Amino acid sequence: MLLSEPFVPRESQRLIIGPDSHPVLHRHVRLRRDEIRGKWVILAPEKVLWPDEISVEILSRCTGKISVATLSQDLAKAYDAPADQVEADVIEFLQEWADRLLIRTEETPS
Amino acid sequence: MTRILAPLGILAELTHRCPLQCGYCSNPLELLKANRELSTGDWISTFRQAASLGVLQVHLSGGEPTLRKDLDQIIACLAENGIYSNLITAGVSFSREDLSRFRQAGLDHIQISFQGALPETTELVGHLKGAHEKKRAAAGWAVDLGLPLTINAPIHKLNIHEVPDFVALALELGAERLEIANVQYYGWAHLNRAALLPSYDAVMAQVEYVHDIRERLTGILNIDFVTPDYYADYPKPCMGGWGADAMAITPDGQVLPCHAAQTISSLTFDRVTEKSLSEIWHHSDAFNRYRGDSWMPETCRSCERKDIDFGGCRCQAFAVTGSAAETDPACIKSPYHAHLRKMPAEGPIQRRVIGKSPQPA
Ligand code: SF4
Ligand code: SF4
């Protein structure tokens, strides 16, 4: 079998999450409340995920309208936690979700 | 008694009709004609019951689901009930306008199968002229309409060398996800297994390639890999276990614990037209027969992997050993492990045709 590198179109490069990114759920991803199980659920093709409370706090703020920095400050206030630590955790979390193509980013409004 | 949890997903086979004739089709050997199919009302009532039972995802499949004239009504019903809808299609039998209607009705995701990464292979496997170009067009419409797209590639001897081309195709078409799914050998695929099973070397090269490329395309393309198990030491897990969180419904409304369960001729199934979905989920014999671990042979029941693979595939156990309650012969601990690779003489691939049962090889 040939092991050549496939051609990757330029618009699809790996996304790197930083403080200025404006994260939003990918269009194939839905976050909803499951009333029957009393839990939040993430639905994606062939995937059902059960995010914990803090993940839901982050994901429900991923509207594409606020930056990771703002989102993190928000959370830090709500949880009375150190802002820079929260931001680092949020970036790590969102990077993992971006790598799984669950999160994308809105172009920073200029 | 095994505790029965709420179901999460349904594979709804809306019809057995299909413009393609793939030799590994997961439909039963006896295909149903259109006059046996459930009505629109039956499907809608079923999906409403499903939502209140806890179902979160429905895969609309077939045959070719877009041959149902009421597909938009069915999609709209799923959307109203908050169910994530996934259309599993061959992508050769609808127009851009149809797709736009499905989208407006609330379709969440589309999965288009490609029998080959190259036009010749797609035609060779599916037996429909011009299919490849139609599929490419359908994928293009999906992307244009903002509909998330998965490319599904069923892999076997005739196309295993095209796996890298499938990756290139998925990237070119702008898919979010590529499913490289090695054909599983029951039903039609079991009948045609001698002509479809790739060689050991081809399978190993594929596994290595996919693991590597998946890593390199992290964050660019999701690659889901359904591994082949004919050459493995342990079986693939049977979903989350038999009757654990999913079910399949046939075009005539029979509710199955697994889409291939009809190959197990010792099972009988209840119908949505005769009983409520809840009653079937909780009490149907077909579901309870292999739930949990009390049905397992000692080999599995005492095995530390039983919560990982649930004893493997019931359908494969039946196809190879004649008993669905055996350890999956893909498992190295199965006394039938060697039988798995014994092939009948290789003949021409038998194609699915409605109203005609094939001759077993
Ligand atoms: S013995 Fe049964 S449970 Fe153990 S690995 Fe084999 S199939 Fe799985
Ligand atoms: S019984 Fe086999 S075919 Fe059916 S879901 Fe389990 S693994 Fe899949």
Automatic annotation (TrEMBL), chain A:
Q: Which GO terms describe its biological process?
A: pyrroloquinoline quinone biosynthetic process
What pathway is it annotated to? Cofactor biosynthesis; pyrroloquinoline quinone biosynthesis
Q: Which GO terms describe its molecular function?
A: quinone binding
Q: Does the keyword Metal-binding apply?
A: no
Question: Keyword set for this entry?
Answer: PQQ biosynthesis
Alphabetical list of Gene3D superfamilies matching this protein? Coenzyme PQQ synthesis protein D (PqqD)
Query: Where does the record place a coiled coil?
Result: none
Pfam families xrefs: PqqD
Say which domain of life the source belongs to: Bacteria
Q: How does it assemble?
A: Monomer. Interacts with PqqE.
Protein name listed in UniProt: Pyrroloquinoline quinone biosynthesis protein D
Per the UniProt record, the source organism is Roseibium suaedae
TrEMBL record, chain B:
Return the PROSITE patterns for the record. Answer: MOAA_NIFB_PQQE, RADICAL_SAM
| CDD domains with a match to the protein in the record | Radical_SAM (cd01335), SPASM_PqqE (cd21119)
Gene for this protein? pqqE
Instruction: Tell me which residues bind [4Fe-4S] cluster.
Output: C18, C22, C25
Q: Which organism is it from?
A: Roseibium suaedae
User: What is the name attached to this protein's record?
Assistant: PqqA peptide cyclase
What does it catalyze? [PQQ precursor protein] + S-adenosyl-L-methionine = E-Y cross-linked-[PQQ precursor protein] + 5'-deoxyadenosine + L-methionine + H(+)
Task: Spell out the family assignment given in the record's similarity comment.
Answer: Belongs to the radical SAM superfamily. PqqE family.
Domain Radical SAM core residue range list: 4-221
Cofactor: how bound: Binds 1 [4Fe-4S] cluster. The cluster is coordinated with 3 cysteines and an exchangeable S-adenosyl-L-methionine.
The processes (GO biological process) annotated in the record are:
molybdopterin cofactor biosynthetic process; pyrroloquinoline quinone biosynthetic process
The protein's UniProt keywords, in alphabetical order, are: 4Fe-4S, Iron, Iron-sulfur, Metal-binding, Oxidoreductase, PQQ biosynthesis, S-adenosyl-L-methionine
Give a yes or no for keyword Iron in this entry: yes
Q: Cross-referenced PANTHER family, in alphabetical order?
A: PQQA PEPTIDE CYCLASE, RADICAL SAM DOMAIN PROTEIN
The record's GO molecular-function terms, alphabetically, read: 4 iron, 4 sulfur cluster binding; cyclase activity; iron ion binding; oxidoreductase activity; S-adenosyl-L-methionine binding
| Pathway involvement of the protein, from the record | Cofactor biosynthesis; pyrroloquinoline quinone biosynthesis
- Enzyme Commission number(s): 1.21.98.4
Subunit annotation: Interacts with PqqD. The interaction is necessary for activity of PqqE.
What is its cofactor? Answer: [4Fe-4S] cluster
Q: Which HAMAP family match?
A: PqqE
What the protein does comes down to:
Catalyzes the cross-linking of a glutamate residue and a tyrosine residue in the PqqA protein as part of the biosynthesis of pyrroloquinoline quinone (PQQ).
